[in-house]
Every structure is written in C-alpha cells, then in structure tokens.
Amino acid sequence: MLNDESHPSLSAAAAAASALLPVAVLGAGPVGLAAVANLVRRGMPFVLLEAAETVGASLLEFGHVRLFSPWRYNVDPTMAEMLGRDGWTAPPEDELPLAREIVDRVLRPFAALADIAPFVKLQTKVIAISREGFDKVKSEGRAEAPFVIHAVERGAPIELRARAVIDATGTWQKPNPLGASGPWLSEKQPQRRRSSMASRTS
Asked: Exposure string (b/e) for 142-180, b if CB count within 10 Å is 16 or more?
C-alpha cells in the first residue's frame, strides 16, 4: 500500500502526463475554430470533434440568410493571421456576409490549413465525457485526472483522452425551451410534427 508521502509525487506525475494531452474542442463552428486558432498560437495540442460532415454545419442550415453583423465581427483575428500567412485575402470589413459565405470564405479554408486539418475529426459525435478512473461517487483527485471522451466516429465507437474540454457546440441543435421551467410536452409535439413533415417533403 502506498504511504502518504508518495501521493504528492504521484499527483505531480499525473499532472505532467495530463499536460501532454490535447485540448478537445467540441464543435467546428466559428467559436470552435477560433478556439483552435488560439490554442495553436499558444503551442497547445488539440483535437477538434465535429458531429457533422463539414465545418460550419449549423451556419449552412441558414446559409442563404444575410447576417446583421459585418465581416469585421465574424472573423477571429488569430484565424485571420494564420489564413493570411497562407495567402488568404480578407473580405471587406464592412460588408454583410451570408451565413454560408462565412463557411466558404473562412471556416473551410482555415480547417484545411496544414497545422489544423490533421487534427479535425468530422462525423464524430460525442456521447459522454468523464474523468479517467473516476465514477460519480469519487471526488478526491478528480481535478487532476484527464478527461475521457466517448464518441462515435463514422459509426465506430472511440475513446479519446484530453487535458481539457472546450464545448463550442452552440445552441442551434439544442434550442432553449420556451417555458421558464423547462420544456413542456406541448412544445415537443409540434417539434415532432415538424420533423415528420420535413422527412416527407425531403
């Protein structure tokens, strides 16, 4: 059995090992990719997990809509700097883009950069996140343990370890309920009808 004096060294070793793991960024939209850009700027390894087949998938669902904020507020400065080094030309700052233009002119070119593309996992849906070696009733040492991400990548279950997790999945696929006390059944029924109608017309 380990004595108490060995615990600090074990904790330090675990923390050092965890520091070598990537930061997991969930969601490859504007916020997730901006987070990735800033992790790269700080020299921190990362892995980007996106459930859809492409980056910026939620924006493409209303891609025809012209946004009310100009380009200057839709491009992260660190992303722009990295793209610029690859020959990218920035759009006019005061122009109002369509939602799909943000994907086509910024998000996809950025995700294709040599420093980014190898660490992007598309069609990877996160199912659960836990701490390695800890269940719900254990707490001592939890903060030092790496995260374990349980996901499904192109139909196959995978597990990833990460030093930290940034949730940039947004609210487009998970809208807030109208009621202040949570979703009522009456809210869910129209949603099911809309889904059914959409499947019949597609």
From this structure: eeebbbbbebeeeeeeeebbbbbebebbeeeeeeeeeee
The Cα 132–Cα 106 span in angstroms is 36
What pLDDT score was predicted for residue 94? 96
CATH (domain of 127): 3.50.50.60
Q: Residue 153 falls within a domain, yes or no?
A: yes
Provide the mean pLDDT of the chain. 86
Q: How far is CA 117 from the centre of its chain?
A: 14
Q: How many residues does the chain have?
A: 202
Strands 124-131 and 147-153, by their bridges, are antiparallel
Q: What is the pLDDT of residues 46-77, one digit of tens each?
A: 999 999 999 999 999 999 999 999 999 999 99
Q: Residue 195 domain-assigned?
A: no
Main-chain dihedrals φ then ψ at residue 13, nearest 5 degrees = -65, -40
Closest CA to 88 of 68, 64, 104, 72: 104
**Number of folded domains in the chain?**
1
